């Protein structure tokens, strides 16, 4: 030591690394703590230096000391410093230290956000990896929110090493920041099919973990997992998936049916024990979920039980253990199959391994019958004697009681035996379960009337020998049974043989050493006993005996009056005075016994534990209503500050309590309930307990299970001291056996008689064989008084879920399409949006996570979200489709005839784009109803069915009746066929209104009924006006065509390679009273743009619109155009021809229109991250241009939303009144905008690598705003 | 989910502790002590699963452990993990250590707990199994060590020759595990 201090130079410190520290600690075994404290001082010195290497070394040592139990949180800041070192070596040390000692309350964590983000985007994969690993240990809600987006990006990293880490950590992010689950889920799902098995396994892992807690939200993934299960060869993945199915099957029995076969195959084929075991487990789960009404699964059960038996018989203790564990699951639903392996399980009870014995004990529960209960319990009692550890012995004890008391003492045929077992159990030393034994004694004595005489006698003995039990004074110790004994002796004192002796035992001075609550019971029951004794003695002529008893009470009770326990003291002094008064009366020869026993008259009925809860609330009683309205002043004062922060408009800040609306009231009520729940002093309103008793009929009316007694009650003489030879319970076993034998003999006799009678007729009928369950009649007694329940008790469905479970927040519906508000926060926006979002959080505290955003979000939509929107719509369509199925079956059949041709293409598309296959419940139904294991083609078809047309634009719907199925128009026909009515109806209405007003805009007519789309990237401030890209194309008296101006490209995936396609959606609305059919859509191709026609048709042929229009109905069709140059806007002339069919006549009509392809039509909304954006701008490849808009009178965010919506841009970053936006053309041109606003002037600086395109786009933007 | 990974020796001295849920240092030490107490009194020939750790987990959690020579490797896991799978994972862990330390012994773990942490980080992340393929784990660990070396860091000399090798038995090499097929998963 001294040497070190002398040499305490920096150099020396440099030398002392982790190894030196460890060695030093090992060399200072005697004064380890002292040595470490000097080391910590050194470390503190090292941390003060600027040299990062020294710091890292110090932090490394601290990590070691942390493991030894030293708090190193004081060095948190230094750890952050080391984390931010640019060298991987130090960084790794820093992150390791952080992962070991950071937690949610470490305040320096806030400082790490940017560092971690930097590391996550580091070009070195190991920097990223180390950051992810560290983050997984200390992620906080704030970090999760701020980094969710970065991590999500990493899920698509090129390196599988990063991908799998990013996927795994998403689970932690979800836990801390549940809002991220829905936006991130599509990508997570995508990773299930990642080419790298590690990534795939990670994704399976995460989804299984999520699904385990909230299985119902993941049911729709079942087909995908099923596919994985049948294709994967990775046992780890298989195990996880199979476990997941185990969690899903209870929710969907049909899934179980589907699973049985492949699982059975796996069971037969696999050689991996772990996989076999999990398969068996899941088959069991399936069988449990199917247990009702599926009789033909006995083969599967047999298979499981067989395999488990093999496991249990294995010499490997681990397999034995697991086999028993799984067996106990089968036991619940198929006890018979398990019972046949009773031998094996009883054998396991003798195993040397405690874990295995415990598991076997669990199984015993289901093994018992009336016949073998005594035998099994006897065996257990032997184990109890032999057991060494108290834990195991206690476990045995509880198991014995569990087994015996199960289903209302169903298997107990002899309660005397049971009582004596309980009494024997009281002799266990050091058990913690005295309370349990006591409650059993009470329960049996109260509920089994006939046993009371016996029980009282036993209890009297216990009281007499109380000194044997009082050794153990700890709570719940065995002396608890004295509580029961005293109460039973007091309450049923009429059965006592020698009440005076018992009374004497209860008033012994030693009693005063018992716990207070037991003394209280002693005192109270001594009084009961006293009353009984008086009653007995008063009949006698000798009155002195009675007086002597009174005297004894008066002598002994003062001891209890002095008790420190309030309850004991109170009762004792009360009873003492009473006895003194009685003594006075006795001395006057007044008969008091009657009156004294009246004190304790009546019988207590057992009441079911949940009875109180189940008392129905009487009609008209509102438990939440105020009895007196609270003073509104204070309440409103509490409100005020909140209101100020959330709503800033001055007009709202007037006194609030003047106008309290319904909602507000409801909210307050909720808050009050909350407060009451948290207030321990608030007595919750509940129906009065007296009511139960008032309404309860007398004892006579209590339902009593009467069991006929064939054998008279035997009460063997009770020996006060310990029985010497056999334990008492064994005597009862013997008696019981004799009784049964006798019974059997009698029965045989009877049967013989019967047989003799019958033999003359039919000969031998059946042999009585071994004694069957029902043959055993209970020995005696057994009126089991059922517990009382209040009248019209409510069925209880309280499943008490832990409200603090973090997984509750993740109970999120994942099939719902993403709302546009649901985005992961992107860094740049946080700065502006953070305070607001927190205010919002406060406001929407009680809102469910599924709809985290405000109503206004509904009104705002963005083009960018077309995909999601479509998904939603297609879901609606699905529903519609179902509906329609009934009405229009023919139509559907007609439609389906055409489908298969389309499907193959659709399927390809879908496979390439798994995100869009948001399988819905209806699809799941479809999958499940496909009873046999789907072959590949079937599955493909299913997926195709499930897939909404990925970019079908706003939906209009009408009955689609493809007239000429032979004309196959690939995608358009398919998607349009999917369109159904719902949204359209709204639209029509609006459209009609519009017509009345004669607003016939040609371009960009806002306010179409189409669901407007919100721009998710724009902060929500005020509701945006509804927007639509549909404009009127052409109209005549018969038909109106609305066109969504040349929507996006068709194939999102291939657009850059094949960036020449534009899809046009046209809504056809029939305005006439006639039927429109044979519609043909034709466009005069230009050199640049061509309508895509099916192969084989000429360049001037029209396209048949794949539906007919009944009067008043509208529908949408989509047409694909091939475009060569996209830098200029274009107009195409076209014609629609159709046949108008009336009842009597039909005419050919035609409508001309012009398709206007603006340059914005060629832009696709593409999200862009700010760093990429910055790089792009720096690259210098872009030409710039700018435009100024004057007199724009709208909020900035509306402006942005408009640009986003109409011109397909996305916001990259927004700071105050300045925003950068990005979009990309179908041919890959980058378009960047910088939008600034001041007053009514908006300036847009733009950059693009194609100046012509840019100029046109800007012109179009200008036009958009000049129109409003 | 894995809640904690503990390595301690036959005397209960912690050699590595990794908690995937936060506890304060005192609780951590208590958990290690309690776990040691539970695990150490078990015979060699009993199963490797244990229920009833009071401090850590609850009814849903199990202790799954393996005992190698002087060291206990204990994983505390919940019901979403396959018991046999975790046993195999422990095996993979130990074999990986054996490869990385070239015939590993307790001293390696004592003096290079940071390295052990780094190896573990490639297998388990945030309580979830990250990788079970030993070769993949070793590749990543080696690559990172190489990077470290290239950065030149004088404090960590991994000269292991100073320490006497203890016979740190690996299954298959000694004892009970030889006759037993330890792999349940074939990972």
Automatic annotation (TrEMBL), chain B:
Domain of life of the source: Eukaryota
Membrane topology summary: Peripheral membrane protein
Keywords: Cytoplasmic vesicle, Golgi apparatus, Membrane, Protein transport, Transport
Keyword Protein transport found: yes
Gene3D superfamilies membership: 3.30.450.60
Family matches, as PROSITE patterns: CLAT_ADAPTOR_S
AP complex mu/sigma subunit domain sequence ranges: 1-147
Pfam families noted in UniProt: Clat_adaptor_s
Biological process according to GO: Golgi to vacuole transport; intracellular protein transport
The family this protein is said to belong to: Belongs to the adaptor complexes small subunit family.
Function noted in UniProt: Part of the AP-3 complex, an adaptor-related complex which is not clathrin-associated. The complex is associated with the Golgi region as well as more peripheral structures. It facilitates the budding of vesicles from the Golgi membrane and may be directly involved in trafficking to lysosomes. In concert with the BLOC-1 complex, AP-3 is required to target cargos into vesicles assembled at cell bodies for delivery into neurites and nerve terminals.
Protein name per its UniProtKB record: AP complex subunit sigma
């Amino acid at each position: 030591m001294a040497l070190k201090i002398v040499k305490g130079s920096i150099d020396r410190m440099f030398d002392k690394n982790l190894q030196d520290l460890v060695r030093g600690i090992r060399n200072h075994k005697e004064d380890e703590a002292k040595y470490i404290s000097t080391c910590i001082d050194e470390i503190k010195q090292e941390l003060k230096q600027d040299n990062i290497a020294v710091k890292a070394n110090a932090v490394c040592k601290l990590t070691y000391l942390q493991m030894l139990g030293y708090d190193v949180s004081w060095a948190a800041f230094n750890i952050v410093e080391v984390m931010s070192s640019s060298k991987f070596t130090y960084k790794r040390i820093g992150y390791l230290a952080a992962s070991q000692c950071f937690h949610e309350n470490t305040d320096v964590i806030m400082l790490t956000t940017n560092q971690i983000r930097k590391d996550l985007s580091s070009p070195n994969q190991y920097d990223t990896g180390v950051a992810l690993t560290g983050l997984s240990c200390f992620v906080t809600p704030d970090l999760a929110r701020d980094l969710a987006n970065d991590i999500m990006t990493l899920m698509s990293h090129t390196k599988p090493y990063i991908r799998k880490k990013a996927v795994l950590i998403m689970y932690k992010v979800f836990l801390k920041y549940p809002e991220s689950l829905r936006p991130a889920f599509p990508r997570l799902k995508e990773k299930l099919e990642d080419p790298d098995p590690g990534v795939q396994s990670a994704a399976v892992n995460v989804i299984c973990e999520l699904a385990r807690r909230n299985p119902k939200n993941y049911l729709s993934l079942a087909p995908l997992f099923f596919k994985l299960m049948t294709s994967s060869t990775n046992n780890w993945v298989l195990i996880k998936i199979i476990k997941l199915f185990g969690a899903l099957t209870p929710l969907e029995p049909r899934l179980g049916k589907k699973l049985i076969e492949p699982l059975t195959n796996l069971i037969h084929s696999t050689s991996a024990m772990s996989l076999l075991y999990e398969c068996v487990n899941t088959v069991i789960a399936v069988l449990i979920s199917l247990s009702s009404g599926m009789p033909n699964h006995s083969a599967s059960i047999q298979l499981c039980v067989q395999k488990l038996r093999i496991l249990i018989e294995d010499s490997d203790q681990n397999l034995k253990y697991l086999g028993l564990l799984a067996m106990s699951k089968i036991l619940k639903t198929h006890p018979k199959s398990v019972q046949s392996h009773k031998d094996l399980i009883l054998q396991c009870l003798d195993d040397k391994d405690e874990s295995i014995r415990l598991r076997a004990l669990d199984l015993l529960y289901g093994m018992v019958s009336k016949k073998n209960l005594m035998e099994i319990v006897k065996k257990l009692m032997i184990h109890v004697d032999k057991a060494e550890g108290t834990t195991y012995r206690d476990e045995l004890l509880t198991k014995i009681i569990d087994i015996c008391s199960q289903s209302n003492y169903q298997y107990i045929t002899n309660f005397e035996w049971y009582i004596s077992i309980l009494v024997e159990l009281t002799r266990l030393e050091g058990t913690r379960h005295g309370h349990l034994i006591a409650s059993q004694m009470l329960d049996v004595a109260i509920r089994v009337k006939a046993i009371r005489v016996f029980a009282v006698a036993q209890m009297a003995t216990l009281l007499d020998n109380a000194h044997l039990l009082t050794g153990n004074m700890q709570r719940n110790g065995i002396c608890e049974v004295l509580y029961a004994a005293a109460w039973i002796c007091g309450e049923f004192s009429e059965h006592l043989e020698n009440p005076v002796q018992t009374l004497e035992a209860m008033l012994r001075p030693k009693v005063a050493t018992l716990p207070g609550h037991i003394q209280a019971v002693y005192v109270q029951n001594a009084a009961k006993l006293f009353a009984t004794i008086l009653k007995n003695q008063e009949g006698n002529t000798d009155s002195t005996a009675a007086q002597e008893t009174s005297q004894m009470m008066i002598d002994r009770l003062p001891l209890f009056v002095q008790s420190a326990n309030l309850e004991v003291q109170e009762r004792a002094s009360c009873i003492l005075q009473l006895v003194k008064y009685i003594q006075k009366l006795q001395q006057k020869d007044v008969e008091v016994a009657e009156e004294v026993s009246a004190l304790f008259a009546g019988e207590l009925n057992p009441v079911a534990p949940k009875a109180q809860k189940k008392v129905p609330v009487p009609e008209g009683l509102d438990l939440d209503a105020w009895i007196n309205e609270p003073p509104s002043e204070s309440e409103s004062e509490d409100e005020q500050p909140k209101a100020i922060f959330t709503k800033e408009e001055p007009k709202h800040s007037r006194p609030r309590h003047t106008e309290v609306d319904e909602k507000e009231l409801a909210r307050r009520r909720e808050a009050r309930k909350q407060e009451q729940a948290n207030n321990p002093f608030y007595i919750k309103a509940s129906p009065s307990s007296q009511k139960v008793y008032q309404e309860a009929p007398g004892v006579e009316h209590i339902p009593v299970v009467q069991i006929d007694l064939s054998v008279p009650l035997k009460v063997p003489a009770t020996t006060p001291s310990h029985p010497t030879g056999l334990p008492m319970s064994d005597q009862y076993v013997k008696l019981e056996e004799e009784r049964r034998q006798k019974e059997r003999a009698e029965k045989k006799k009877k049967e013989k008689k019967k047989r003799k009678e019958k033999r003359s007729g039919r000969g031998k009928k059946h042999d009585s064989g071994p004694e069957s369950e029902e043959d055993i009649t209970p020995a005696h007694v057994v009126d089991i008084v059922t517990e009382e329940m209040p009248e019209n008790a409510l069925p209880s469905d309280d499943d008490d879920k832990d409200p603090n479970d973090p997984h509750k927040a993740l109970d999120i519906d994942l099939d719902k399409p993403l709302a546009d508000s649901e985005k992961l926060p992107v860094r740049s926006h946080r700065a502006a949006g953070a305070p607001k979002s927190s205010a919002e959080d406060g406001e929407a505290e009680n809102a469910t996570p599924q709809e985290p955003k405000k109503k206004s979000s509904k009104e705002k939509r963005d083009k960018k979200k077309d995909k999601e929107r479509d998904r939603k719509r297609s879901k609606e369509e699905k529903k519609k489709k179902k509906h329609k199925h009934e009405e229009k079956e023919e139509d559907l059949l007609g439609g389906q005839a055409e489908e298969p041709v389309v499907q193959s293409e659709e399927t390809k598309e879908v496979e390439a784009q798994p995100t869009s296959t948001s399988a819905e419940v209806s699809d799941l139904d479809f999958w499940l109803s496909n009873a046999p294991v789907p072959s590949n083609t079937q599955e493909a078809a299913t997926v195709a069915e499930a897939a909404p047309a990925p970019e079908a634009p706003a939906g209009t719907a009408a009955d689609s009746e493809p007239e000429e199925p032979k004309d196959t128009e690939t995608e358009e026909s398919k998607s349009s066929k999917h369109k159904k009515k719902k949204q359209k109806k709204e639209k029509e209405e609006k459209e009609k209104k519009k017509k009345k007003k004669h607003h016939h805009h040609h371009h960009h007519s806002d306010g179409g009924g189409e669901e407007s789309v919100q721009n998710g990237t724009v902060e929500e401030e005020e509701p945006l006006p509804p927007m639509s890209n549909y404009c009127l194309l052409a109209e005549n008296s018969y038909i109106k065509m609305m066109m969504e101006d040349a929507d996006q490209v068709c194939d999102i995936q291939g657009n850059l390679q094949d960036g020449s396609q534009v899809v046009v959606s046209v809504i056809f609305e029939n305005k006439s009273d006639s039927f429109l059919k044979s519609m043909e859509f034709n466009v005069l191709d230009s050199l640049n743009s061509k309508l895509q026609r099916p192969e084989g048709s000429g360049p001037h042929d029209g396209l048949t619109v794949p539906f007919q229009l009944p009067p008043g109905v509208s529908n949408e069709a989509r047409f694909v155009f091939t475009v060569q140059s996209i830098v200029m806007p274009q107009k195409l002339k076209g014609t629609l021809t159709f046949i108008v069919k009336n009842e009597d006549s039909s005419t050919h009509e035609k409508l001309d229109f012009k398709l206007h392809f603006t340059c914005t039509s060629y832009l696709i909304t593409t999200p862009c991250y700010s760093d990429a954006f910055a790089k792009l701008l720096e690259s210098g490849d872009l030409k710039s241009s700018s435009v100024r808009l004057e007199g724009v009178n709208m909020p900035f965010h509306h402006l942005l939303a408009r640009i986003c919506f109409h011109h397909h841009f996305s916001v990259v970053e927004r700071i105050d009144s300045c925003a950068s936006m990005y979009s990309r053309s179908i041919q890959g041109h980058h378009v960047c905008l910088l939008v600034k606003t001041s007053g009514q002037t908006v300036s847009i600086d733009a950059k693009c690598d194609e100046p012509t395109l840019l100029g046109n786009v800007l012109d179009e933007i200008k036009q958009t705003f000049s129109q409003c | 989910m894995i809640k904690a990974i503990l390595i301690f020796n036959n005397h209960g001295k912690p050699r590595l502790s990794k908690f995937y849920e936060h506890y304060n240092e005192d609780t951590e030490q208590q958990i290690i002590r309690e776990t040691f107490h539970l695990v150490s009194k078990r015979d060699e020939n009993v199963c490797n699963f244990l229920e009833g750790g009071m401090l850590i987990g609850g009814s849903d959690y199990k202790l799954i452990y393996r005992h190698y020579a002087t060291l206990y490797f204990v994983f505390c896991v919940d019901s979403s993990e396959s018991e046999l799978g975790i046993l195999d994972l422990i095996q993979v862990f130990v074999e990986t250590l054996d490869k990385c330390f070239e015939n590993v012994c307790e001293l390696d773990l004592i003096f290079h707990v940071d390295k052990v942490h780094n190896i573990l980080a490639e297998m388990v992340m945030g309580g979830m199994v990250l990788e079970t393929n030993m070769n993949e784990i070793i590749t990543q660990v080696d690559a990172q060590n190489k990077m470290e070396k290239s950065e030149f860091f004088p404090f960590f000399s991994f000269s292991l020759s100073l320490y006497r090798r203890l016979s740190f038995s690996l299954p298959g090499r000694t004892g009970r595990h030889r006759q037993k097929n330890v792999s349940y998963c074939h990972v």
